[in-house]
Amino acid sequence: MQLSSRIRAIPEPAGNAWEIYERAQEMRTEGIDVTMLSIGDHDTITPEPIIAHMAGAARQGNTGYASVPGMAPLRAAIAERATLRTGAAAVAGNVFVTPGGQFALFEALMAVTDPGDKVVMIDPYYATYPITIRAAGAAPVIVKADPDNGFQPDLQDMAAKLPGCRALLLNTPNNPTGAVYSRDTLNAIAELCQAHDVWLISDEVYDGQIWEGEHLSPRGLPGMAERTIVIGSMSKSHIMTGFRLGWVLAPEQVVNAIWELAIATTYGVPGFIQEAACFALTEGDAIEAEATARYRSRRDLAVDVLRGANGLRLSAPQGAMYVMVDIRPTGLSGIAFARKLLEEHHIAVMPGEGFGQAAAGHLRVSLTLEDDALVAALRTLAGLAGALAV
């Protein structure tokens, strides 16, 4: 018996982007102490007030089926947040609550693409983008962002590839590179989307983690609210990765369409988790501010340790919770270097090749360790790069 062509088309032809992470997990089960700087998960648990509010909501009876598009107070809180952060007015009807930002991305793609449609994405990209596009039946089209130009997108290449495409997937602040796209860049992208009648899917999960410049949502640009779908999440801002609480912010026609998809798939998000998210958005400004300050401090520490080190180059991240390290001076690929770092020094990072060809010869380092341990791991990484430099 053969599996469907749909499911067989999803995996990346280049291989498993999570190879190093999975090997690190195996080593841990073998009793080896591995320093994890691979995935973007926090090193602290969700703050107690959020956990307590979730538990209280469950004990008070919010354990049955929840409203599929999301409970009204939560949708309203997300809309208020979006109005402030995107600069374009939003109401609860523009919001659909999802089990995590990843499923929000899938729903957005399912809503605006047909099988065989093309979706432009910028390389480097978050590792799930191409497989999510293929899972929705569409085909990814690559626009490269040059690492020697701060990983900013090549607008001429984008202009050449957008005609005939249905959507553009954008991510700023960017995972994995930490690049924040400028107002001029986003204005140019908005003009291209309007000229070619393209939907813009804007992944803004890291909108609060800005270290240089400003976060600008394309939804707030002239003529863009009606063609922009914003992906949001509680995972990074409020240390709630395991809660799987995200959202789609979109024109109401999109929200109404994905309602049907949610009925056929997830049937909503548990009510007690929604109540915890609502509490976090309305009462948790201090929690978000503390998390943001922590990653800003770690970003500055990482830049201090790595900048000028022999055997590597560093483009200081402008946002997000990662540092992208260029180890091409060592003569090794990102995969080969990451394997060596893991096997010899028990430090796990993500090789750049898992994020696209523009990231080849790079490492994505998650800033998910307390300060002393992070500095020690980065110094080990820099020492290995220096020893291998050619």
From TrEMBL:
Highest taxon of source: Bacteria
SUPFAM superfamilies reported in the protein's UniProt record: PLP-dependent transferases (SSF53383)
UniProt key word Transferase: yes
MF (Gene Ontology): L-aspartate:2-oxoglutarate aminotransferase activity; pyridoxal phosphate binding
Record domain Aminotransferase class I/classII large: where: 33-378
The enzyme's E.C. designation: 2.6.1.1
Keyword annotations of the record: Aminotransferase, Pyridoxal phosphate, Pyruvate, Transferase
Signal peptide: none
Catalytic reaction(s) noted: L-aspartate + 2-oxoglutarate = oxaloacetate + L-glutamate
Cofactors required: pyridoxal 5'-phosphate
Biological process, per Gene Ontology: amino acid metabolic process
Gene3D superfamilies per record: Type I PLP-dependent aspartate aminotransferase-like (Major domain)
Keyword Transferase: yes
One Pfam assignment: Aminotran_1_2
Family: Belongs to the class-I pyridoxal-phosphate-dependent aminotransferase family.
This protein's name: aspartate transaminase
Organism: Pontivivens insulae
Lineage start: Bacteria, Pseudomonadati, Pseudomonadota, Alphaproteobacteria, Rhodobacterales
Annotated gene: aruH
